[in-house]
Amino acid sequence: MKPKDEQKQEAIQQAALQCIFEEGIAGLKMESIAKKAQVATGTVYVYFKNKDELINHLFLRFKRSSILALEAQIDVKQPFKVNFRQLWYSYMNFALTNPAQATLLEQLHRSPYLSQEARQEAEKLLEPIRQLLNEGKQQQLVKPVDNELLLAFLSGSINQLARRSYEMGFELTPLRLEQAFAMAWDGIKS
Q1: What is the Cα–Cα distance from 148 to 98, expressed in whole angstroms?
Q2: What is the full per-residue pLDDT of the chain (190 aa) written as tens digits?
Q3: Under CATH, domain 1-49 is a member of which superfamily?
Q4: What is d(CA 53, CA 38) in angstroms, rounded to the nearest whole number?
Q5: How many angstroms separate the CA atoms of 122 and 40, rounded?
Q6: Which residue from 11, 119, 147, 179 puts its CA 20 to 30 A from 43's CA?
C-alpha cells in the first residue's frame, strides 16, 4: 500500500471547508469535494471513510487551531482584563480572517454529523478559557454565572458580528471593534 499524499489530503480538507462555507453541511457531497480538490471521488474515500469522518476531522482540526491561537494570548502574569481583551480581540480576528473556518465551527456545533467524541474533545480544549473566566470570578471581576453562559454570550456575539462583516459588508472599524469589546466587557463584568 502506497503512503497517503499529504498534499491531496490537505486539498480535500480545504475543498470540504469551502463546500461547507458555500453550500452548508446538509448538501455536502463527496463528489463536490473531489471536484473542488481536483481528485477522483474514490480518492476522498482513501483519506476519509465517509462524510461524517471528514466532518469530525475538520471540526477538531480547526477547533484545535483556533483554541491554541487563543490560548497563546493568555499570559498569567498579566491582569485579568488585559488577558480577556487579548482573548476577545484574538477570537474576533480569527472569525474575521477565517470566515470559512468560523462558519464551519459554528454550523457543526449544531450538527447531527458531529460525534459525541468530537464534542467531548472540543469541550476539553476550552478548559484554559474556562480557567481564565474562573480567575476573573475569583477576583470578582466577572459575574458569578456559569461559564457556559459566558462562553455562549461571548462567542455568539463575536460570530454574529463577524458574519455581518463578511456577509453584509458591515465595516468593523477600530472604533466599532472597541465599542463591541466594551459591550462584551460590560456584559460579563460584575
Answers
A1: 24
A2: 566 788 999 999 999 999 988 888 888 899 999 999 999 999 999 999 999 999 999 999 999 998 988 888 888 899 999 999 999 999 999 999 998 888 888 888 878 889 999 999 999 999 989 999 999 999 999 999 999 999 999 999 999 999 999 888 899 999 999 999 999 999 999 9
A3: Homeodomain-like (1.10.10.60)
A4: 20
A5: 31
A6: 119
Q: Which three cell numbers stand for residue 119?
A: 464534542
**What residues does each domain of the chain span?**
1-49, 60-188
Alpha-carbon dihedral 84, 88, 93, 95, rounded to 10 degrees: 140
Cβ atoms of 13 and 57 within 8 Å: the answer is: yes
Q: What are φ and ψ of residue 85, in 5° steps?
A: -60, -45
- Burial of 175 from C-beta contacts in 10 A (0-12 / 13-18 / 19+): exposed
In terms of Cα–Cα distance, which of 188, 187, 184, 190 is closest to 90?
Answer: 184
Residue with the three cell numbers 480581540 = 89
pTM, entire model: 0.84
Just give the CATH number of 60-188: 1.10.357.10
> Under a CB-based contact definition with an 8 Å cutoff, are residues 48 and 12 in contact?
yes
